[in-house]
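hey m, so remember when u said the tokens were messed up on ur end? i reran from scratch. heres the input so u can diff it against urs
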Amino acid sequence: MPRRRRTRHDIIRSAVFHVLSLALVVVVLYPAAWMLLSSFKPSDQIVGDVGLLPKEFTLDNFLTALDGIAGISFWTFFGNSMALAVLSVIGIVASSSVTAYAFARISFAGRGMWFALMIGTLLLPFHVVIIPQYIVFSQAGLVNTYLPLLLGKYLATEAFFVFLIVQFMRGVPRDLDEAARLDGAGHGRIFFSIMLPLMRPALVTSAIFAFIWTWNDFFGPLLYLKKPDLYTMPIALRLYVDATSTSDFGAQMAMAVLALVPVLVFFLVFQRYIIGGMASSGLKG
């Protein structure tokens, strides 16, 4: 009898857990499902329609989104986002890996202090530096260019990625470095021939996060890009909503779905590297 009660208790606890988990999944996925299904609704049936499923199925929203807006093609916005994301990935991976190698493998005066200051920048709210940065880039004549969005990424200002790679490199045995030095290798040879191949999980993880964060960035391009032909996908979405005239919510939902496709594909292809890279870098939950 006690064994039966214990089994029944386990069944009830398991059922409650799965019900709550399913409810949480529904709450989390509902906005995405609403956006996807709304992209197939006529624009005048999106706002104010409490139904999730479209009453009239249409592909006109996607055709409108692909035609572009304000005389600018959808592929212009897509190309701008892709170029910015790819250049950001290159800059972050290159600069962060070199900086992480210096912190993890090179002994220099004040290394601990500089590393602590770098980590401290993670606690600095982004809004604190918005105005000073904008003034500097504006006086330099760099507004309406991608340089304000890319320059910091090539100077290893993204402390999260440096920290992630440093944590990974600290797990690599120093015997490899010492053996290379005995063969006459310097820091450059050790970095490119030994450390760089071993850092692939951490580098791929950094590249994935850099791509997704840059692709989804709204505030940075909104702040520095004023010309519509320079807009990225998140900024282009704003063009479909006009408070003073008719808003095309259908095309906006369709373009939002199209904007999510590259991120979703990128994540599905490389998700195993995220798990492996985070586990091997010591950033376990």
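this time it looks ok to me. The radius of gyration is 24 Å. if urs says something different then somethings off w ur setup not the seq
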